[in-house]
């Protein structure tokens, strides 16, 4: 769920129209870029939610993973391609189809789709470092408020040194992270056991419990497999390269990337779930840590004990930095639009200072309070992403003439249902 846009888009600047046929270097780069963007720190929380409900919800998740990911991101890609201007990004296409007011609303929703994830990673990083110091390094960590402040201040300081450098570093770190995930999944194979088969259904039993488990899994799946921030740049680049034939090429690229992504993530999820028990996963959820941190404490092996938390820290740091850049840009845009609507201009220095202080204070406060990470994903990150990624493109099919050629497909009904179910998970958190 990180940004590789800066590195990828530079390979797709050819403005001549090509016919879709052989794969080009640019296409392969985008396959790898989309794959690397989607597999991030969100993957570290998916096994906990997926396995805690028992075998049947886990199998349902495995069946849904590829179609919900592919059809949703294809829908958003088609939406961006439906704009009349070749170089228009998603906010410009929204304004073209739905008006300036809706464009502002989508900008606001994009901010709230990214910002809560930044808060999630603030909590996750603090918990992971605190647990690593306590259990692996045998060091008494400082008070939580002080540790959280030091970590977040340090990361924001890194961003201030240069965003382009951070983006390049994140791009480099993506594939070693994926490789380590796969190696760790393979390393866990000797620890596989049959505990998950002893709990076929959620502990309470019954169809209603299965439906409840799937209901809560969906927002976490939406969060974990989401790479919608890069879709706009992807669609624009491919339209510049392939012209009217861009949609077919984009669909092929997305399908390849999503098959790779789902295969990698599901192998990691199943390996983690098979090496633990539903009770262990429930304990990990209660501890409010990633699956790697829990594995480090659960297995008495030096490789897992030290490698897992280090990988988790790197992954969460990478995701924090990527989402900080996106959230700060979104907040800057909201402040500038609000000021201009009142006939005022905000200086860049004052704007950056305000954004930095706002992000620091809010991320530090949430990390200190330590709310449950999975509850935050279920109630904030997943539902808002689902609204933009699943519902908006499906709504556009019925309202936008350029999108009506995609109407009538069963995949549209499927994506709409998954989106609605994911969004309604917020009501469960409110009731709780």
Q: Label the CATH architecture.
A: Up-down Bundle
**What percent of residues adopt helix (DSSP H or I)?**
over 70%
Radius of gyration: 21 Å
**How many E strands?**
0
Beta content comes to: under 5%
Q: Shape, please?
A: globular
The CATH topology assignment is: Amino acid/polyamine transporter I
What is the count of helical runs? 18
Structure write-up:
Keywords: Amino-acid transport, Cell inner membrane, Cell membrane, Membrane, Symport, Transmembrane, Transmembrane helix, Transport. This is HAAAP family serine/threonine permease. One of its GO terms (molecular function) is amino acid transmembrane transporter activity. It catalyses: L-serine(in) + H(+)(in) = L-serine(out) + H(+)(out). It comes from Moritella marina ATCC 15381. α6 (about 100-135) runs antiparallel to α15, α8 crosses α12 (about 245-275) and α11 (about 230-240) packs antiparallel against α12. The longest helix has about 40 residues, at about 300-340. This protein has one domain (about 5-430): Amino acid/polyamine transporter I. The chain has about 425 residues and is mostly helical. The chain is about 80% helix and about 0% strand. Mean pLDDT is about 85; it is low at about 1-20. It has helices spanning about 5-10, 25-40, 45-50, 55-80, 90-100, 100-135, 145-160, 165-185, 195-200, 205-225, 230-240, 245-275, 280-285, 290-300, 300-340, 350-370, 375-400, 410-430.
